[in-house]
Design brief:
The chain is of the alpha/beta class. The chain has two domains: 221 residues, Enolpyruvate transferase domain (UDP-n-acetylglucosamine1-carboxyvinyl-transferase, Chain); 214 residues, Alpha-beta prism (UDP-n-acetylglucosamine1-carboxyvinyl-transferase, Chain). The protein is 29% helix and 28% strand. The protein is built from 13 helices and 24 strands. The strands form six sheets. It has a four-stranded mixed β-sheet. Helix 1 runs parallel beside helix 2 and helix 10 runs parallel beside helix 11. The termini are close together. The protein binds shikimate-3-phosphate and phosphoenolpyruvate (PEP). The site of shikimate-3-phosphate has 10 residues, from helix 6. Keywords: Amino-acid biosynthesis, Aromatic amino acid biosynthesis, Cytoplasm, Transferase.
Length: 441
């Protein structure tokens, strides 16, 4: 499917965002590990999360959606999953695949896992290696990629792991295996990544520790084999999805857009900090707490942006937001330098290369130096390009945001990938005044 974004004038209105993708995956999985019934409201009903729901069903977990939108999960307890008769297809979802690998490591059966062409290209060694050390066996395609088979064990060994990357998926996979292991399992991260796993499992009764170490590193520990209490989860709005209307508003003169009920976990809000440093008029009010996470309403107004240097240490708190930040940078006067973006190369696509190529195709002055992205902004982009999303929802949405303020429309090929994380994106944006429509084949 092709979507085309044509230039629009001011944007205005108030919108609620779909549920947070990270928390949605986790609420389904963790509810499955509890003993008893959990209820989830505000779950993101995007394809990634639906893939996690069907994988859990295939392993004998009753997961149901009620007519009022509440999801009800009958937990089977830690270690209670059943051997799936068919391969688990996680679609486009790296989070679903990697966290499930951690769970499966602790179960004494063999399961097979695959995904779409994007997920099959993503590196799994970062998860397989620590889980192997705990005693799980993996057979994977060359480069440790999907499809793979995992044979877990009920008697995993506890692990003390130091991860080379600040990755919440790696950390969570190890912690979930640790949940199935007697004793203490620990993970050290080079910089703190999103901590939803720790918060949610602690809220369900697991013993989770967190310790700051030298150089910004952090050590997380989990005591294995707890009985987890079922929960009522209310999933906050996704700050990573809110990033698209937020940037659209910031680059549109006269825009006033209110984004309601957005998660404000400080390990997720690097983009908003960066936009404020670029001169964006951003205000947060109505701060409140829901299900152990701070949320609030964010108002973004059209602003004269200036280029900035984004500190590399901020990357984990905005890792999925660099594509749309690069769009903001195209509209900011001067140079924006984003350093240390190697992890962007192993997302749904090589986001570093695709952003640079797409921006250049839209007439933006852009350079990649090693793992750094440098954008010279301030002139209105020509637009007029046809961008292939390469099965990457964030690439698709970023260029549709750019097309709204370019001189000529931007068309995105393969825009159906947006359904993985942000169903209703085009109608939410058009409701604010954007001009996004399907292109007849
Ligand atoms: O744990 C999570 O929910 C996620 C972690 C991040 O990936 P990495 O752990 O690979 O950095 C992020 O990019 C992804 O969208 C969601
Ligand atoms: C990287 C992302 O997701 P995942 O790793 O779950 O596929 C993302 O949503 O930008």
């Amino acid at each position: 499917m092709q979507l085309r974004a044509s230039p629009h004038d001011a944007l205005s209105g108030a919108v609620a965002l779909p549920g947070d993708k990270s928390i949605s995956h986790r609420s389904l999985m963790f509810a499955a590990l509890a003993v008893g019934e959990s209820r989830i409201t505000g779950l993101l009903e995007g394809e990634d999360v639906l893939s996690t729901a069907s994988a859990l069903r295939r392993m004998g977990v009753p997961v149901e959606r009620h007519a009022d939108g509440t999801w009800v999960v009958q937990g089977v307890g830690v270690g209670g999953l059943a051997e799936p008769e068919e391969p688990l297809d996680l679609g486009n979802a790296g989070t679903g695949a990697r966290l499930l690998m951690g769970l499966l490591a602790g179960h004494p059966f063999t399961s097979f896992m695959t995904g779409d062409a994007s997920l099959r290209a993503r590196p799994m060694r970062r998860v397989i290696e620590p889980l192997r050390q705990m005693g799980a066996a993996f057979l994977a395609r060359s480069g440790e990629r999907l499809p793979l088979a995992v044979t877990g064990r009920a008697d995993l060994l506890p692990l003390a792991w130091e991860s080379g990357v600040a990755s919440a998926q790696v950390k969570s996979a190890i912690l979930l295996a640790g949940l199935h292991t007697p004793g203490l399992t620990t993970v050290i991260e080079p910089l703190p990544s999103r901590d939803h796993t720790e918060r949610m499992l602690a809220g369900m009764g697991a013993r989770v520790t967190r310790e700051a170490l030298s150089g910004g590193r952090v050590r997380i520990g989990i005591e294995g084999q707890p009985e987890l209490r079922p929960q009522s989860f209310r999933v906050p709005g996704d700050p990573s999805s809110a990033a698209f209307p937020a940037v659209a508003a910031a680059i549109t003169p006269g825009a006033v857009v209110r984004l309601e009920g957005v998660g404000l976990n400080p390990l997720r809000t690097g983009l908003y900090t960066t936009l404020a440093e670029m001169g964006a008029d951003i205000a947060v009010d109505n701060r409140r707490e829901e299900a152990g996470e701070e949320i609030g309403d964010i108002t973004v107004r059209g602003s004269a942006l200036v280029g900035v240097e984004v500190p590399p240490g901020r990357a984990p708190s905005m890792i999925d937001e660099y594509p749309v930040l690069a769009v903001a940078a195209a509209f900011a006067r001067g140079r924006t330098v984003m350093r240390g973006l190697g992890e962007l190369r192993v997302k749904e696509s090589d986001r570093l290369s695709l952003m640079a190529e797409g921006l250049a195709a839209c007439g933006v002055d852009v350079m990649v130096e090693g793992d750094d992205l440098i954008v010279e902004g301030g002139r209105q982009p020509a637009g007029g390009a046809l961008i292939d999303a390469h099965l990457d929802h964030r690439i698709a949405m970023s260029f549709l945001v750019l097309g709204g303020r370019a001189a000529a429309p931007v068309t995105v090929q393969g825009a159906e990938t947006i359904e993985t994380s942000f169903p209703g994106f085009a109608s939410l944006m058009t409701g604010l005044g954007a001009r996004i429509g399907a292109v007849a084949p």
